[in-house]
Amino acid sequence: MLDLMAIQSSVAHPTLVTMIYTLLLAFVLSSTIGWTYEKTFKGLSYSRNFVQALVLSTVVSATVMQAIGDNVGRGLGMLGALSIVRFRTSFKDPRDIMFLFAALGAGIGCGVFAWGVAAGGTLAFCIVAFILSGTGLGTRHFYDGMLRFAMPNESEARLAVEKVMKSNIRTFVLITMREVDGGKRMDVAYQVRLARRHPAAEVLASLSAIEGISDVNFMMQDAVTEM
């Protein structure tokens, strides 16, 4: 039977069993972090490569920490070697950086044989990520997107549009209005929040059915960015 306490006591000279166990644990923890990222992601630019990079970064950091061990000279040499490599990847979402830090932290914990800390920290991080994803903490005001269309500059058309908007859209705010064709038509844009029972396709169909309405389009808003 594998004695974990005996393995943890051999930090200075890790055995083959210790290294295998460490890398397997790093892989399991990083896969958990990657799965959490996939399930809680709500943006538009999802990257499969980033999820795989999370897993790989944990394994690499665990390997590096095992190679350094308690040797100060190795640590300084590794620092000099890593300073040669320039990482130019930019992160548009701060949340991605936090997931990368969590993966690196799990790998470092495994690499120094602090397996309990690595597993506990990973579990706590994933639970908090799911809680934040479900509660929507930080959302100040949310619109589903922008609705834009052209309409005749007449009272009848304005009344018909207002009737459709009030009956099909939960919240709408006029953001732009300009006259075109010498004042005969108006180009308008609204920020809207759709009602659950009226999807965007139904709203577009209702507006297009009004006589004189043209160029109806709906642009979804990024779920991460507040307008």
Distance from first to last alpha carbon: 58 Å
Number of helices: 8
Main β-sheet, in a few words?
4 strands, antiparallel
Q: Total strand count, please?
A: 4
Would you tell me the overall average pLDDT? Answer: 81
Low-confidence stretches: 5-10, 223-227
Strand order of the largest sheet: 2-3-1-4
Radius of gyration: 27 Å
Q: Which descriptors would you attach to this protein?
A:
4-stranded antiparallel β-sheet, alpha+beta, 227 residues, 8 helices, 2 domains, Alpha-Beta Plaits
Structural overview:
This protein is α+β, with helices and mostly antiparallel strands and 227 residues long. It folds into 2 domains: 4-135, no CATH class; 145-220, ACT domain (Alpha-Beta Plaits). Helix content is 56%, strand content 16%. It contains 8 helices and 4 strands; from the N terminus they run H-H-H-H-H-H-E-H-E-E-H-E. It has helices at residues 4-8, 16-40, 48-68, 72-84, 94-111, 115-135, 155-168, 200-208; strands at residues 145-152, 169-180, 185-194, 214-220. Strands 2-3-1-4 form a 4-stranded antiparallel beta sheet, covered by helices on one side. Helix 2 packs antiparallel against helix 5 and helix 5 (94-111) packs antiparallel against helix 6.
